[in-house]
Structure formats: structure tokens, C-alpha cells
């Protein structure tokens, strides 16, 4: 029989569980919105890597991406959605018991 | 609720990193000093005290609005292509009550800004103590100290300290009254402007513009 604390981690959201996507969501959860360049610099991710992870988060409905222009320069504005915020909170609740278990 | 002060602090710090805000504030303080020098705070224009206060409040309000617009315009051309754009979470909440807050607080702040220096001179003068420049210096330096503490930006501590030093020099040299106030605002404006220009130079040197295709 698996420990109850560990069992909660079995059902974590795999979209969020990936480290890069987790930090993207964590950052976006603390700001209103951020553009692609800001995320790339803050998280030290490559363009392709960030683009791929953002697409997955967008497909899951966790991130809203708006492509626009500023001074004729393409601009990609990203923001966390309410369901993304909720999914992140759920993930924290599910993963916290595992962390506590490991620290015992 | 997911919440991290350090992320928000980093985002706030990001806004001040380029020094453009300081440049705008420095120019604003210098402009105010020039206004004081040319008109004696409105007294030389033969205006009533009420009209002087209203005029100062109006100038202050227009200055704040113009400053915000100019900073965003400059950031869109200098900063965002280099380090990206981030909008802080509280900005939307502030926007909802922004007009009401501006209407309520701006005239009050302008009234205090105009009346307090004069009031301090009169009060301390009647007590035989002329520490008005020290108090005014502390008032001007306070926002720099508060901001430095809030976003952990060391250069603003230095700017605040230098403003306090200017007020001490003015007090020791017995430069009081309108001349003292004008010199204090002027020197503070120069210090803030210089700090902003140095920060901007460092920012531009250390952050090259990211190519267009790399932004999407």
C-alpha cells in the first residue's frame, strides 16, 4: 500500500509538472502579463524551448497568448488564465505532501 | 493562491532598471526649480495665494500625466526591445480607482508640496531654529529611500543621501527661503537626472537589442 502523502503525487497535472512549464506558470502567476523576451531572459530558456512550452500551456488552456505589434515590432504577450491559476494551486496542494514526506 | 513577493519585486525592479523613470523625475524636479526661480513659486506673477496653489496643483497633475506617457514612449523604444515587457499584477487594480485617486490626492499633494516648505520656514523661523532646508531635504529624499528599500536598488540610497547632504550644505551656508528651496529642488533634480543617465548608459551597454525574429 503506497503512502498517502506519496499517493497524492500520482495524479499531478503532467502539463504543469514539467520544470520549465512550472516556472513559466509560476512567473506568470505573479504578474499581469509578460512578453516573450521577458520570459526568455528571466527563465534563461532558449527561443525554441520557450515557444514549445508556451504552446503546450496554451493548448491546455493555462496560458493566454496574444500576438500583436509595438512600433512595427512583433510582440507576444503571455498571461496566465484563471484555469491556469487554479491548476497551479491544485498542483501545489498535491505536491506539497510529497515534499513534506521527503523532508522528514 | 499562488503568490511570490520576490517575483513581483523582480518585475518592479525591472521597470526601474533602465533609469528612464529617474531621468523623468530629475527633469521634473529641475523644471520645478526653474519655475520657482523664474516666478518665485507664482508670487512674481501677481497671483493670489489660492491661484498660486491651484496653478502649482495643475502643473503637478499635468507633469505626472506627461511624465508617465513620456516614460512609456521611451521604454517602448529603448527598454522593451532589450529586456522585454512585464506588466505588474497590481496595475489593473490601480487603474480602476486611478481617476478618483488622482482627483483626491493630487491637489492635496500639490497643496502640501506648496504650503509645507513655506509653513516650515515660518514655524522654525519663529522658534529661532532654521532647519527648514534639512526637513525639506528629508522630504525630497524620502521617496528615494522608500523606493530603494522596496525594490532593493542601492543607487537610490546614494541619491537620497546626496540630497540630504545638499540640504545640510544649504543649512550650514544659511541659504534659506525661496533661494534655498530653489537650489534644493534644482540640485536634487540634477542628482536624480545624473543617476538616471548613468543607469541608462549602463543598461544600454549591457543589454543589446534582441533581433525582431527572436521575440516571437
Radius of gyration of chain B: 19 Å
Low-confidence spans of chain B: none
Q: Count the E strands of chain A.
A: 3
Largest sheet of chain A: 3 strands, antiparallel
Strand line-up in the sheet with most strands of chain A? 1-3-2
SSE arrangement of chain B, N to C? HHHHEHHHH
What are the segments of chain A in which pLDDT stays under 50 over at least 5 consecutive residues?
none
Tell me the span between the first and last alpha carbons of chain A.
19 Å
> Biggest interface, and residues per chain?
A-B, 29 and 27 residues
Helix content class of chain A:
55-70%
Mean pLDDT of chain B comes to 81
What is the molecular shape of chain A? Answer: elongated
Determine the structural class of chain B based on helices, strands and strand pairing.
Answer: mainly alpha
Whole-number mean pLDDT of chain A: 89
Can you tell me about this structure?
The complex is a heterodimer of chains A (104) and B (216). Chain A has 104 residues and is α+β, with helices and mostly antiparallel strands. In chain A, 62% of the residues lie in helices and 20% in strands. In chain A, a hairpin with a 2-residue loop joins β2 (63-70) and β3. Chain B is built from eight helices and one strand, in the order ααααβαααα. Chain B starts with a helix and ends in a 10-residue tail after the last helix. Chain A binds chain B through residues 26-27, 29-42, 47, 67, 70-71, 73-77, 85, 88-89, 92, and chain B through 1-4, 7-8, 10-11, 14, 76-77, 80-81, 83-89, 91-92, 210, 212, 214-216.
Amino acid at each position: 500500500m503506497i503512502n498517502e502523502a506519496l499517493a497524492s503525487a500520482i495524479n499531478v497535472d503532467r502539463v504543469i509538472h514539467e520544470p520549465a512549464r512550472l516556472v513559466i506558470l509560476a512567473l506568470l502567476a505573479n504578474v499581469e502579463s509578460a512578453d516573450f523576451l521577458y520570459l526568455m531572459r528571466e527563465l534563461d530558456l532558449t527561443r525554441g524551448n520557450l515557444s514549445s512550452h508556451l504552446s503546450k500551456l496554451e493548448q491546455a488552456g493555462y496560458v493566454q497568448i496574444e500576438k500583436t505589434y509595438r512600433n512595427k515590432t512583433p510582440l507576444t504577450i503571455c498571461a496566465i488564465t484563471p484555469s491556469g491559476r487554479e491548476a497551479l494551486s491544485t498542483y501545489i496542494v498535491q505536491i506539497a505532501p510529497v515534499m513534506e514526506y521527503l523532508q522528514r | 493562491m499562488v503568490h511570490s513577493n520576490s517575483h513581483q519585486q523582480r518585475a518592479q525592479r525591472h521597470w526601474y532598471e533602465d533609469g528612464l523613470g529617474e531621468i523623468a523625475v530629475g527633469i521634473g524636479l529641475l523644471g520645478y526649480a526653474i519655475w520657482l526661480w523664474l516666478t518665485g513659486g507664482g508670487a512674481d506673477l501677481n497671483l493670489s495665494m489660492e491661484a498660486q496653489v491651484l496653478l502649482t496643483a495643475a502643473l503637478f497633475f499635468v507633469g505626472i500625466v506627461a511624465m508617465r506617457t513620456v516614460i512609456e514612449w521611451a521604454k517602448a523604444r529603448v527598454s522593451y526591445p532589450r529586456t522585454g515587457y512585464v506588466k505588474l499584477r497590481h496595475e489593473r487594480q490601480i487603474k480602476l480607482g486611478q481617476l478618483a485617486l488622482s482627483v483626491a490626492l493630487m491637489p492635496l499633494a500639490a497643496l502640501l508640496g506648496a504650503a509645507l516648505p513655506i509653513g516650515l520656514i515660518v514655524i522654525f523661523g519663529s522658534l529661532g531654529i532654521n532647519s527648514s532646508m534639512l526637513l525639506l531635504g528629508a522630504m525630497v529624499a524620502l521617496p528615494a529611500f522608500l523606493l530603494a528599500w522596496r525594490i532593493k536598488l542601492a543607487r537610490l540610497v546614494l541619491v537620497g543621501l546626496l540630497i540630504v547632504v545638499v540640504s545640510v550644505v544649504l543649512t550650514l551656508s544659511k541659504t534659506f527661503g525661496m533661494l534655498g528651496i530653489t537650489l534644493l529642488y534644482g540640485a536634487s533634480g540634477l542628482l536624480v537626472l545624473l543617476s538616471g543617465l548613468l543607469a541608462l548608459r549602463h543598461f544600454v551597454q549591457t543589454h543589446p537589442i534582441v533581433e525582431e525574429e527572436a521575440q516571437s
